[in-house]
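Interim report, section 4.2 (structural modelling).
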Amino acid sequence: MHAAQIEKLIEKFERLPGIGHKSAERIAFYLLENMTKDEVSDMASTMLGAKDSIHFCSVCQNLTDTDPCKICSSHKRDKSVICVVESPEDVSAIENTNEYNGLYHVLHGALSPMDGIGPDDIKINELLLRLTSGGVSEVIMATNPTVSGTATAVYISKLLAPFDVKVTRIAHGIPIGSDLEYADKMTLIKALEGRQTM
Amino acid sequence: MHAAQIEKLIEKFERLPGIGHKSAERIAFYLLENMTKDEVSDMASTMLGAKDSIHFCSVCQNLTDTDPCKICSSHKRDKSVICVVESPEDVSAIENTNEYNGLYHVLHGALSPMDGIGPDDIKINELLLRLTSGGVSEVIMATNPTVSGTATAVYISKLLAPFDVKVTRIAHGIPIGSDLEYADKMTLIKALEGRQTM
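Predicted structure of the assembly:
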């Protein structure tokens, strides 16, 4: 019973990740009732501007507005270490720790034969290319601890065997601040397997 | 550490209702990674198009792309009943029941002296104007069961006293499908007060 234009607007917001029908409706009404025309037009042009100017870094494949990206071109980063992640969001998460000073490589996905995603569908070749240029001593596999993330880590580590490079995997275990009794079985197993001398 | 354009995009999404920083980041990356340029441009123009063409119905004040809106101009609706609500979302909620066949009046807010919202800040005068033209036999106050919603209902019902019109308030009580033991005190009191003969 909404006007067609409102329905169409709700539909657009509904397609965004994490937004259900109710939230999309709320956002649409907010846009129509509470935002000025200038604000809406500003938002629309920000979307178009970002889409136009943001592309993949030719080195690490992360989203960037420069090429190479700020991290790849920074003189303060340790270029001998590459941390391999599935998505740009993972780069943000690690950057937010302020504890990692190496470079990244964004795969833009993980191997998933069931979904038809093979080695050529993610940025694996681009990673191999970086290693052939040399200067890299360690590759940290920081793909997600899921079936496809782990399979991707194993697959890439095998491809890297011919190179003179150490391949490591981020630790899995009980998250800090959480309770042991609420940890799932696999996490507990990983936590026990990965135990370290105190 | 995001590119400036990405930061700006995240910021825009973050301003929408119900979207926190994490969700905004997720939506921004989705837009940059998973949406085509055409899809983004289509979404931007839908936003601008809706903002341009949607306005308040001159009769009921609901959002509409025609004037009067489809409900006000429908020959199938009972024009002798007006249901007064706070927002266009409330109209959708009631329309979705398929049980109400009268007209609406959208106040676009509720009286809230603490927030500086007085009678002239919401569409009360527009409601009075509708009643002066006659033909209305009942006004259903369906503002929210909050302090300001109830105050608004009481205020309007007093203003309507001079008119030859029945003013009613929607029932408050235990929601269908919920459990009595989880109902809050006020809801229980309202449910008892509003008890009806079986």
